[in-house]
Fold each of these.
Amino acid sequence: MTLGYSHDHLRDPSDEGARSVNVPVARVRVLTVDDHASFRATVRQLIAATAGFEVAGEATDGLEAVAQAERLHPDLVIMDIRLPEIDGYEATRRIAQLHPDIVVYLVSAAADALECRAATTCGAVAFIRKEELRPDLLLDLWAVYGRNS
């Protein structure tokens, strides 16, 4: 899945002349799923730097992701593809079946066209390379795929 997005709708809050930022009205609660503690820490920092988003919880494998989604009912799941127990595709399928209102972004450090296609068939709304995760991308994707979009 290609992610083409523009930063035109984003602005510095101190810039009075710019158009307003697409900041969610309600807090977007995020569940992060990755087996590497360092990436989960990076996502916590990313979420803290993104207006309107907050950490709902974390999981370290696919089965825990499904259980945490059931327990926490987050708005958004940022899910690694390569996970212990069950992979991110299967975890996403299960979450989508149980909670179709939960939005899932699949992430991976190494991605190819096959993984991008698989992301669209398992219930995820977007595929993102880990190094591309930024506050503006989260806001842009949420503006398109969020619950109230």
Note: Strands lie at 28-33, 53-59, 76-80, 103-108, 126-129.
Amino acid sequence: MTNYAGGWGYPQGQAPYGAPAAPPVPARPQTVTYAVWLMYAGAALSVVSGVVESLLAHSLVTTMFTQFERQLPAGQPKPQIPTDLLTRVFTVAAVIGGVIYALLWLWMAWKNSSGRSWARIVSTVFFGLFSMSVLSSAARVSSGVLGILIASLVTFAVGLAVIILIWQPASSRYYEAVKAQDALRRGQAWPPGGGYVGYGTGNSGGYGYGTGYGYGSPQSTYGYPPPADPPDQPQPPAPAP
């Protein structure tokens, strides 16, 4: 304890006597572990999908503009489209997109592994958006995008397995335990048993604020005797002489 300018206090980073130690990190269940492994697989699949799209860039661009020309009215001249330039742009975009998707997978794997509840929600939102993209691709499938669709369906299956695993009851208990641990460390929650619990013996396990030895307890505090009974309480009879 140190006498600071504002009064007595405890050094930065040190807990006062009777304050609980940092709770242990909850054990990560197998459901979350498997989900994290699948997220790593999803990151690898994203890179593979980006490579596949870049290799099929010329075919995709050609197919897209062929369909566009078929929709033109009869007799209208066909526009001159720089397909080579668009193919290069599409190739670069496919590679960058694959890298971005892979980084998102790795980010979610990291945060879900740490038991962050918000990461589970964000992962679910990402999966919903990706599912709509896969359905849209399946509705307009063609020979040019068949390889991309297959890669997307495999990634969809991986994502679905991840969502099922992270919403299992064992996973939910892990996320809630980490959330409670963080709240306790920030001082927004009390340890089980009520109040600050320190070293020693007592109803709640030690000295400090709570139901054991400490402030507000009828038992002795730091060596001081317990307070006397109020005068309105019946007193035991005096011993006979």
Note: Residues 30-178 form one domain.
